[in-house]
Amino acid sequence: RIDFKIALLTYRCLNCLAPRYLSSLLRLPVSSRLACDRLISMKSRTNTYGCRSFKTYAPQLWNSLPQNVRIASSLAQFRSRLKTHLITVAF
């Protein structure tokens, strides 16, 4: 359930549907050689809580999603594909 919420928030950030302060926490690759639908993973400064922060965990989760989920053209389509993927992974 947490993964669903974080992935949904990440999608909103990448499609300008979330507040700017959240969108600024995510970094897109600058090089054209890198996949345009992937995010740059940030390293946390602390091992205790840093790995659980949105800035650190959202890119890891986003990059682990299949491409057909990441490239959804609408929020409703993304939500549907994400639910299907997460249920498939769980079972």
Automatic annotation (TrEMBL):
<protein>
    <recommendedName>
        <fullName>Tick transposon</fullName>
    </recommendedName>
</protein>
